[in-house]
């Protein structure tokens, strides 16, 4: 196997964790075209792309780690930090926008003390935005861990966050 850069030639990396090894084994090594599918599967498995995972992926695909990092940061779908235990997704599609999703998002940001794309300091809740969730008839819509909540008003943000915290005993 021909190293692609000096840092890879000189560095021995430990074996990947079993779940990642299983993903990598499904893809032939040294094939750059597998980079994005591997990143997608890895994120699907671990919920985000850790630095360690990106090093293993770079080694497997045969590209510098900087290339993997560059691809992972280019596409919105990839997350480089671990998500919280619970995820709130606020829809920002057109129907939801028209019915106040901006104000709703601001209400969640205020309630959680974070911005969209961030996770609360206690690691409990990640807040993010998404394009149309496919339930425009009940706009504005959010999902909490995949469960839909529609026709929301800004005052609902505090109640929903309280329910998550209560369920987590916080
Ligand atoms: S625009 Fe929000 S569900 Fe369609």
List the helices and strands and how they pair.
Blueprint: H1 6-10, H2 18-25, H3 35-46, H4 51-61, H5 65-74, E1 86-91, H6 94-98, H7 101-112, E2 118-119, E3 125-130, E4 142-144, E5 147-149, H8 156-167
Parallel strand pairs: 1-3
Antiparallel strand pairs: 1-4, 2-3, 4-5
The structure holds FE2/S2 (inorganic) cluster.
What would the keywords be for this entry?
12% strand, five-stranded mixed β-sheet, binds FE2/S2 (inorganic) cluster, 8 helices, Glutaredoxin, 5 strands, alpha+beta, elongated, 170 residues, single chain, disordered N terminus, 2 domains, Arc Repressor Mutant, subunit A
Summed up:
The protein is of the alpha+beta class and 170 residues long. It is 44% helix and 12% strand. It has helices spanning 6-10, 18-25, 35-46, 51-61, 65-74, 94-98, 101-112, 156-167; strands spanning 86-91, 118-119, 125-130, 142-144, 147-149.
């Amino acid at each position: 196997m021909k190293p692609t850069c000096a840092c890879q030639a000189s560095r021995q990396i430990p074996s990947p964790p079993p779940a990642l090894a299983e993903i990598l084994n499904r893809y032939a090594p040294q094939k750059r075209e597998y980079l994005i599918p591997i990143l997608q599967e890895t994120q699907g498995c671990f919920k985000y792309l850790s630095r360690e995972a990106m090093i293993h992926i770079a080694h497997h695909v045969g590209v510098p780690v900087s290339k993997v990092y560059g691809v992972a940061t280019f596409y919105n779908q990839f997350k480089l930090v671990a998500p919280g235990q619970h995820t709130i997704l606020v829809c920002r599609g057109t129907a939801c926008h028209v019915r106040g999703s901006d104000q709703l998002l601001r209400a969640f940001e205020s309630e959680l003390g974070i911005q969209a794309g961030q996770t609360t300091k206690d690691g409990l809740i990640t807040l993010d935005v998404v394009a149309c969730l496919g339930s425009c008839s009940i706009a504005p819509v959010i999902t909490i861990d995949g469960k839909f909540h529609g026709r929301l008003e800004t005052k609902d943000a505090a109640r929903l966050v309280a329910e998550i915290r209560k369920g987590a005993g916080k």
